[in-house]
Design a protein that fits this description.
Layout lengths: L15 E4 L8 E6 L10 H14 L7 E5 L3 H13 L2 E7 L4 H9 L3 E5 L11 H12 L2 E2 L7 H17 L6 E6 L3 H13 L4 E7 L4 H7 L27 E7 L1 H15 L5 H7 L9 H7 L4 H5 L4 E6 L29 E7 L3 H5 L1
Parallel strand pairs: 2-10, 3-4, 3-6, 4-5, 7-8, 8-9
Antiparallel strand pairs: 1-2, 7-11, 10-11
Helix pairs in contact: 1-2, 1-5, 5-6, 8-9
């Protein structure tokens, strides 16, 4: 019997699902389905990790108020864990995020304050600055997923080992998106120690500053993007990109089209971050010349060997934005410069390993 109460017992051991309808050449593609049921968010593991760390350090006591800046998914994780631990939660969310997430959070009893998504770090209405200020005003604890070491530690100690075990310790590449940087940092540390041959790859939405930072070391001015949960206009304090071998930029259009294809061809409704990672080149892109022109990674062309890929599906259920399901989504105007937050990952191994594992 699990020692964790209620919904917390569902953390971890999420399934790996094979995708068979996508044209991946000599590659195999799997989805790491991070939520078993619609009500349980992908970020519940880091929510538990950060709350337990705060409790152990004495930073919070029973009945305390947590304050966090979030695109919604980390907030959902904090809400479920905090509810089980008797904590209150106040979240600051940029106004570009989906209504479904906000409705879900408020149904859980979370106080949600919306703020502008067209301002950058240092502006009083920037969601992280606003959350930190509110925490001081209400006497709450600012969780700060962007600077909290318990965030990447959760991925290093749980997500990484789980994926590695489910892949039978045979994998060639892991592609991640970056929001707070917890996923890519934790997984990068795990694979650097246990499987240094696994290449870490960053998939970044067009408009984010991170891919160019990895490629050239430059921090350019941020643009805007529709994809929620990943992409940044700054380098988060906990984000360690040193293990990243390659970084690629993916357009909103490719993200939307890939997410929609996943729904139509596999029956899986995932949020746009999944389309962003898939749009990195190992799933569905139009023509080889388009991929090269747009700068997308193509593991099949680059490695010249069969690769088995695992993609992590972060969320499912009614809190998702409806964008992937609508044809017009790919043609919608982009929002003002803002930020999508969160993280995601994709992994791979040689397809020939199937024979050895049989």
């Amino acid at each position: 019997m699990s020692a964790r109460p209620g919904v917390l017992a569902l953390i971890g051991n999420t399934p790996l699902v094979a995708l068979r309808s996508f044209d991946t050449g000599p590659c195999e593609l799997f989805v790491k389905w991070k939520t078993r049921i619609p009500a349980v968010p992908s970020k519940i593991a880091i929510g538990l990790s950060m709350i337990e760390a705060a409790e152990e350090s004495g930073a919070i006591k029973p009945g305390a108020t947590l304050v966090e800046a979030t695109a919604g998914n980390t907030g959902l994780g904090l809400a479920l864990v905090g509810r089980a631990q008797g904590l209150s939660l106040l979240l600051v969310i940029p106004d570009k995020m989906s209504l479904e997430k906000v409705v879900h959070l408020r149904a859980l009893g979370v106080e949600v304050r919306m703020t502008r998504s067209d301002v950058g770090k240092g502006h009083p209405e920037y969601y992280q600055d606003m959350a930190q200020r509110i925490a001081g005003e209400v006497g709450g604890y600012y969780v700060n997923q962007f600077g909290n070491p318990a965030n990447p530690r959760a991925h290093e100690t749980t997500t990484g080992p789980e994926i590695w075990r489910q892949m039978d310790n045979r994998m060639d590449a892991m592609v991640c998106g970056v929001g707070s940087g917890g996923t890519i940092t934790g997984l990068g540390r795990f694979f650097a120690r246990h499987a240094p041959n696994v290449e870490m790859v960053l998939a970044d939405p067009a408009g984010s500053v991170l891919a160019e930072h990895v490629r050239s070391g430059k921090m350019l001015e941020a643009g805007s993007w529709l994809v929620e949960g990943i992409g940044e206009d700054f380098l988060p304090p906990i984000c360690d990109l040193s293990p990243v071998h390659h970084a690629y930029t993916v357009s909103d259009e490719d993200s939307l089209l890939t997410a929609r294809a996943l729904l139509r061809q596999e029956g899986i409704l995932g949020r746009l971050i999944l389309g962003n990672l898939g749009g990195c080149g190992v799933t569905l892109l139009p023509r080889a010349e388009d991929r090269q022109a747009r700068g997308h990674i193509d593991l099949r062309q680059r490695q010249q060997v069969p690769v088995q890929d695992v993609q992590r599906l972060l969320d499912a259920g009614p809190r998702l934005s409806a964008r992937p399901a609508h044809r017009r989504s790919a043609r919608r105007d982009r929002p003002p410069p803002g930020s999508g937050r969160g993280g995601g990952c994709l992994a791979g191994r040689h397809a020939s390993d199937r024979t050895r594992a049989a």
